[in-house]
Design a protein that fits this description.
Length: 561
């Protein structure tokens, strides 16, 4: 293999890049170069689920991005960390597998993206998934590389939350990745036998021996190389002062660098808004005003309660009890080391529990100082987070300069839209009701925040602005859409408008936020991208009989959700 000439060059070995590297090299003939800015994933904290607390604070394995101050975040800069290692954010994130509602993807198709309706993309969700546990095989995958398991660890607090949620119209015992999302239960996640299974572990590690696949870590891409308006390769360096290396793509360059780095790389390479590109002193290759626009993110507001008469993670994560949990993990028994940060879920509608969900509830039988992931509170506590699943507030990502190591300007404009503000206020009120509802109330000594004195809309909104945080789901900054749309960047085959030999396959192409954590949707995008790139007929669309899909969840029924 020529070390500098490949059929495909993939930028970013994260959630999408590892899947694409596997699929594009599977024929044994197509040569693939996968470039990752970060190091290999050898740190143990990247593989133990509970190690996320250590991993997310380590800049060696993460992009330590921060948002710009905004009114919706109380003038604060919010840390919006993303993965920077093999596996990307799947090596450091919350491990939750959540596809969202069928209507999300039908909405993508109806916005001018043929082939992206739910029936079209369901086979791609199934392709990557190996469901370990109960699930309807008509909608769940069983032969994929990524194990999706049920939580085997149980907490009286989680059980009480699920029961309390049930009294407010969220039924238990559902497969939220099946025919209906609305309900409450324990999350499904990519954990198997106590270990995190990132995309690097599931899709890349088993095929590293392929002679036609070349993986390079410490490869920070600094520029896309164009000949006229065709992408022919990339330049990368091992560090700020290291010499530049160029690799060429005979067929295509594929960007999988994420919702922050993908638009930034386009901009510093001369593709984007003419005003921005001229402002950072880069020659204009192609004007494409949508690059970096349409940023959306889930804004999480967390309520914290002080617990009584029950053990919490705060108790289990210290002293002899921590050693007990370590021993249980080593013996492959249920342990706090092998759970996702958010353990239980609730999906409901703030106005009517019989309608499709508009908020997601994340329950954790533990709590963190200042309601942020990192340092556990000294008191026994538990947390109930809430966020609007389809935010209307729109922001942007913009390169600050032509310097490839400078982080971009990230402005999500949290809570800028009135509907977002209304939904977060209603969501806080609903979360409070759950905390005060039996059987969860028996474990609640008191709600630490928001304080009982915060009762008005203005007070609850002020609480959300000052203590809300990201759910780490940035997307949409290179949105898919028709060429005539002023904010679209790629077409329905993920090709960048106006240039050749360049595609994007990551969260940035999502035209609208799915009602879910975005990881599962990124896996699906990568699987579909592989077929599009190789010119194969896309996977046979699933046949979805309307009786099997309850009202409001079928492919064409839930637009208003």
């Amino acid at each position: 293999m020529d070390d500098n000439q490949f059929d495909y060059v993939i930028v970013g070995a994260g959630a999408a890049g590892c899947i694409l590297a596997n699929r594009l090299s599977a024929d044994g003939r197509s040569t693939v170069c996968l470039l990752e800015a970060g190091p290999a994933d050898r740190n143990l904290y990247l593989h133990i689920p509970g190690g996320f607390i250590k991993a997310v604070s380590n800049p060696r394995y993460t992009w330590q991005f921060r948002t710009e101050p905004g009114e919706g975040s109380g003038g604060r800069r919010i840390s919006i960390i993303q993965g920077r290692t093999l596996g990307g954010s799947t090596a450091i994130n919350g491990l939750i597998y959540n596809r969202g509602q069928a209507a999300d993807y039908d909405g993508w198709a109806d916005a001018g993206n043929p082939g992206w309706g739910f029936a079209d993309v369901l086979p791609y969700f199934k392709r990557s998934e190996r469901r370990v546990g109960a699930g309807d095989p008509s909608v769940r995958g069983i032969d994929g590389e990524l194990p999706i398991t049920d939580c085997d660890w149980r907490s009286p607090l989680c059980d009480a939350f699920i029961s309390a949620a049930g009294t407010l119209g969220m039924p238990a015992g559902i497969d939220y990745n099946g025919h209906r999302q609305r309900g409450a239960g324990y999350y499904q996640r990519w954990i198997e036998n106590g270990w995190r299974v990132s995309t690097a572990k599931a899709f890349l590690a088993p095929v590293r021996g392929r002679g036609n696949l070349h993986v390079r870590t410490h490869a920070h891409v600094t520029k896309l190389v164009f000949e006229a308006k065709r992408a022919v390769g990339v330049q990368f360096v091992a560090g700020p002062d290291a010499p530049s290396t160029e690799v060429r793509a005979r067929r295509e360059v594929i960007l999988c660098a994420g919702a922050a780095n993908t638009p930034k790389l386009l901009q510093i390479s001369g593709v984007g808004s003419q005003t921005l590109i001229e402002g950072i002193g880069v020659p204009l290759v192609h004007r494409l005003d949508g690059v970096g626009e349409n940023l959306r993110d889930h804004y999480m507001v967390r309520l914290v309660a002080r617990a009584r008469n029950v053990e919490t993670i705060n108790d289990l994560a210290q002293g002899p009890r921590l050693w007990r949990e370590i021993a249980r993990w080593a013996l492959k028994r249920p342990s706090i080391l092998a759970i996702s940060p958010s353990v239980a879920f609730g999906f409901t509608n703030t106005q009517d529990p019989n309608l499709d969900a508009d908020i997601q509830l994340n329950f954790t039988p533990g709590s963190y100082k200042e309601s942020r992931s990192g340092v556990l509170d000294s008191f026994p506590g538990f947390t109930l987070g809430v966020y609007q699943m389809r935010p209307k507030s729109v922001g942007y990502v913009r390169a600050r300069s032509a310097r490839p190591f400078e982080h971009p300007e990230i402005q999500p404009n949290y809570l800028a839209h009135e509907e977002d503000r209304r939904t977060v206020i209603d969501g806080i009120r609903l979360a409070r009701r759950i905390l005060e509802t039996e059987p969860l109330a028996r474990y609640c000594e008191r709600i630490e925040f928001p304080p009982d004195t915060s009762t008005s809309d203005d007070e609850l909104l002020d609480f959300a602005r000052n203590l809300g945080n990201t759910a780490y789901h940035p997307m949409g900054t290179c949105r898919m859409g028709p060429r005539e749309s002023p904010t679209s960047v790629v077409d329905a085959e993920l090709r960048v408008h106006g240039v050749h030999g360049l595609r994007i396959a990551d969260a940035s192409v999502m035209p609208a936020m799915p009602s879910a954590n975005i990881g599962a949707a990124v896996f699906m995008i990568a699987e579909k991208a592989a077929d599009l790139i190789q010119g194969r007929n896309t996977a046979t669309a699933a046949h979805v009989d309307s009786p099997a899909w309850p009202q409001g969840t079928g492919p064409r029924d839930a637009r208003a959700a």
